[in-house]
Backbone:
């Protein structure tokens, strides 16, 4: 708990007195509202930071009609690493601004409740705004429900309708292209790809990057080289089993995420293949499983937590701005290739 020099709890009155401004001015700075000069805003914010002042959320809610609650919306909560990383990044941004984070799941249309149940829950959640993760960020029914609720939102890695809202992204297509070319430059020519879910924009962009790299090198990938996956390890295992049954089996497999790449490692072991001597396997995301797998996975580091953090920052910065949705902004974050032990030049 923050304390003043007398050992008592620091209040908004203390901040206003020391800054030489009104309580209303301090409130505007804390709530990121307009009507405060830049010099005054900086002086008040410096005091808030130095004294570690954290306003009472209930009192703020009553005075500003906000809940100080941000929602993170998911569809596949089974992707534990991704969901966890989004929450870590979002919470970092929320804590800095004095907000709290809530998590909601949109169930698939065939599930009980489906998007309609989500829309009804949205009205009761009292979110000030929401961050939409893939694939909810591209779902027309989800977007319609959020807009009908009058909530500002920021999307993470959308695949279409970029003009619809602010968003945060990384270049999945370029990263996948570089990952494929890394295998090509090792000497691989029969490079297979394990795809992700059809409704997931990042899966499509990663497939496009793979295809672009192969075609740039004068190779049109055979249809059987692209196996269907669902971003789950079992789907990677099954896809690899099918690829290894081909008459000319691949010398390298690029899985569109690390979970499927781990499944590919298991399928290779089951079939008596040594990775990377007999088969190279690479992934995408750089999850803890990539480091823990044996051999350790060569992969692409995706800044998941940083994208979520940036999305929440954009959302909070836009509160009170009537033009928030109309003035679409985008933030692009970088990636990096991570070389480990699962990829090597093909054996003679």
Residues:
């Amino acid at each position: 708990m923050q304390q003043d020099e007398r050992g008592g709890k620091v209040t908004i009155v203390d901040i206003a007195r020391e800054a030489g401004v009104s309580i209303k001015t301090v409130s505007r700075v804390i709530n990121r509202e307009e009507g405060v000069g830049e010099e005054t805003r900086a002086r008040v914010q410096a005091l808030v930071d130095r004294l570690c002042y954290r306003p009472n959320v209930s009192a703020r809610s009553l005075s500003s009609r906000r809940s100080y609650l941000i929602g993170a919306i998911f569809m596949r909560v089974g992707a534990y690493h991704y969901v966890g990383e989004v929450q870590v990044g979002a919470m970092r941004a929320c804590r800095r601004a004095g907000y709290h984070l809530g998590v909601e799941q949109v169930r698939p249309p065939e599930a009980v409740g489906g998007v309609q149940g989500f829309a009804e829950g949205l009205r009761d959640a009292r979110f000030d705004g929401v961050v939409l993760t893939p694939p909810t960020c591209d779902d027309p029914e989800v977007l319609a429900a959020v807009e009908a609720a009058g909530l500002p939102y920021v999307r993470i890695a959308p695949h279409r309708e970029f003009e619809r809202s602010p968003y945060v992204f990384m270049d999945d297509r370029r990263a996948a292209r570089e990952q494929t070319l890394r295998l090509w430059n090792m000497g691989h020519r029969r490079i297979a790809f394990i795809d992700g879910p059809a409704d997931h924009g990042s899966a499509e962009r990663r497939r496009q990057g793979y295809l672009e790299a192969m075609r740039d090198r004068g190779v049109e990938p055979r249809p059987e080289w692209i196996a269907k996956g669902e971003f789950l390890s079992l789907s990677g295992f099954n896809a690899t089993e099918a690829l290894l049954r081909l008459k000319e089996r691949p010398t390298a497999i690029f899985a569109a995420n690390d979970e499927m790449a781990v499944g590919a490692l298991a399928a290779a072991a089951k079939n008596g293949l040594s990775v990377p001597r007999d088969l190279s396997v690479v992934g995408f995301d750089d999850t803890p499983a990539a480091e823990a797998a044996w051999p350790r996975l060569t992969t692409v580091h995706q800044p998941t937590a940083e994208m979520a953090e940036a999305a929440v920052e954009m959302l909070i910065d836009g509160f009170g701005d009537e033009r928030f949705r109309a003035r679409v902004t985008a933030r692009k974050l970088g990636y990096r290739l991570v070389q480990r032990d699962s990829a090597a030049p093909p054996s003679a």
About this structure: The first strand starts at residue 69 and ends at 74. The radius of gyration is 24 Å. The chain is about 45% helix and 15% strand.
